[in-house]
Amino acid sequence: MRARTTGAPQNHWFGPSGDPRAAGIGTPEAIISTWSGHREIIMDQGELPDDWSIPPIR
Predict the structure, then answer these.
(1) Rounded to an integer, what distance in angstroms lies between the CA atom of residue 54 and that of residue 42?
(2) In a domain, 57, yes or no
(3) In a domain, 49, yes or no
(4) Is residue 55 one of the residues assigned to a domain?
(5) Are strands 12-13 and 24-25 parallel, antiparallel or unpaired?
(6) Could you say which of 8, 26, 45, 54 would form a disulfide bridge with 12 (CB–CB 3.0 to 4.6 Å)?
(7) pTM for this entry
(8) What is the pLDDT along the chain (58 residues), one digit of tens a residue?
(9) Domain coverage including residue 26
């Protein structure tokens, strides 16, 4: 069995950090917007250690 992809070429992008509201193909702006956007973990699984606390803001 082989894995399948979306079929989009590697130079397609879907907005900053994968946001589907914008798109572009291979331009320098497209590449910068895709790979330099802010990313966060929006879902985590598992329990936190008892001694864990929110990290300080730098």
Answers:
(1) 15
(2) no
(3) no
(4) no
(5) antiparallel
(6) 8
(7) 0.29
(8) 555 556 655 556 665 555 666 666 667 776 676 666 666 666 777 888 899 898 898 8
(9) 10-36
